Amino acid sequence: VQAIGVLGDEKSVDGLKKAACDSDREIRITAVLGLARIGDAGSADVLIKASDAKDAWERIKTGEACLELAEKLAAAGKKAAVNKIYTHLKNTRKDAGESYVGDIAAKALA
Predict the structure, then answer these.
(1) Which of 42, 72, 89, 98 has the maximal Cβ count within 10 Å?
(2) CA angle, 47 then 51 then 52, to 5°
């Protein structure tokens, strides 16, 4: 899963989306990071869902992946997906330990 993400193989997006729902936390995180690196707009919903994990480490890593995907999509002019990601992060990152993510998203939306 990691190699596919590092290679940025667009043909592997569907497989990575499936791996993002795996029972193993490390596989889920690695798949989400790979999807972010690929920069596929169709992966936004998968990353958003993954970013709502209960586990703190997984929530941090998938939140970072959401930010990375949003940056890539912004560079590609995919405004709708970018706004969806940033709006979700802005609205869900309220706790003190993760409010910086919401702040980044709010600033990007402004």
Answers:
(1) 89
(2) 130
